[in-house]
Design brief:
Layout: H1 3-30, H2 34-40, H3 45-49
Length: about 50
């Protein structure tokens, strides 16, 4: 693993958990389901989280 890959892994590790926590809090607090989540996440990302 070179420095570039290590940097990308670090960036992924510090950005993904807050996004997942935000999504889970929104899901349980506001009742976001698969039909509304697809409008919140650009692209096909909603299918990956649900």
């Amino acid at each position: 693993m070179d420095d570039r890959e290590r940097g990308l892994a670090f960036l992924f590790a510090i950005t993904l958990p807050p996004i997942m926590v935000w999504f889970l809090v929104a899901k349980f607090t506001y009742g976001i389901d698969a039909s509304t989540a697809k409008y919140l996440i650009p692209g096909d990302g909603a299918n990956l989280l649900i």
